[in-house]
Amino acid sequence: MSDDGTTYTFPLREGVRWHDMQEFDSSDVIATFDRFFNPPEGVTTKAMAEKYDAIESYKANGPYEVEFKLKQLTPWFLELLAADPLFYPGVIYAEHELTANNGDLRSEISAGTGPFTVKEIQAGEMWVLEANMNYWDPELPYVDSIRQFHIGAWPDRGAAVLTGQTDFAWNVSFDTWKEGAAQPNKFQVGLPSGTGGWGIWYNQERPGFSDQKVRQAIHLALDRKAISDIITSVVIPFPQAHWGGPHPYQIDGWDQLPGWRNEKEEDVARAKELMAEAGFADGFVAKKLVLSQPAPFSEVSGPAILAEMADKLGITYEDTEVIERSLEGDTLMEGDWDIFIGPSGFGSDTMDPTKMWQKYHACDGGMNFSNHCDETLDGLLEKLLVETDESVRQTLATQAMENLNDNPPTWYCCGTAGIPMARTYVKGLSIPTRINGGWKRFETVWLDK
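^ that's the sequence the OP posted. Answer follows.
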């Protein structure tokens, strides 16, 4: 890294091969970032371009070195490069595969360089992974194969571990997790915290939700503690949180602020006043509600939220569509909905919430599915992206959260947590002490049996 922190030079490991045995080198890195910033027609990479928008230029210094020059000092640049690739895959793709498919890999199982190769896929049922015998680290992986089963319902995932049908699950239901925790001689459990959060989406291009007073009313009226308790009882622990998971700029006493406090009488009264001021004293009927699986969201927590909106504010809906979770991204992007409730929330690649706020709530945010736009918030985010003084950052972050409370882009409820459970013979994943991230990484797993 250069002395001013704006130039990073990375040597690339030699001898790494893609699963099709072609050699990995700097051309793959350059082709991947070219695709992020200049995607082919029909391919959307806006979220990735935004994630790495601090990059001014990049180049290859020969086959085994790449250099990135940043627009300004970006403290979390390395954190972004190393972020968990589960939901927003900041991974390197093979240049030859990008070229062969015109940059569109949605219908391809593209070659990787990792410790496992794909041996078999049974759509909607199972993936079978096999140890990559040409992996660059000859000591890994420790196991010969992995079978990943598609089990949509989280109680069923927990039951599969409890009954010995599977060895491990990243997320199970809280009830099955507690049953496993009560038998430490057989099972191991963990509660790694998340950096993002969860809530409901409303489309600000639809009548009613375009009004700031309506959004404020929802922000004030819905009982976050009750919803958090419901989700925790049927899915995983979703602790109440204020515009992001645990982060360094949280406002002291945020849980006593209007909308966030547990005492709701005053908040509900003010919410009804706001609805009347907006011309919706008796509420209104939204055109389309979308509920996304799994069932705890579409059948339990979702209906609980909708009941509160109807009872307290008179907001109901006309049509309902229930979708599979795999369709969430496309459905959110298409925007043919008024209210969207599902498991996908607001993911953050860093402990600092700035990039998350930019991604979901800035006017041109790559995942601003609510179509929110507040120029004051954008101005604060632009300053947060370049400010390095921590006291100034605290002031700016506080102002940003105050803005989000005053002009809510979504109804934000809770932080998130993982809830993994495994048999005690599963080793190498640090399940009880795991802090965050690393989902779907198996190269260090081994079985003591």
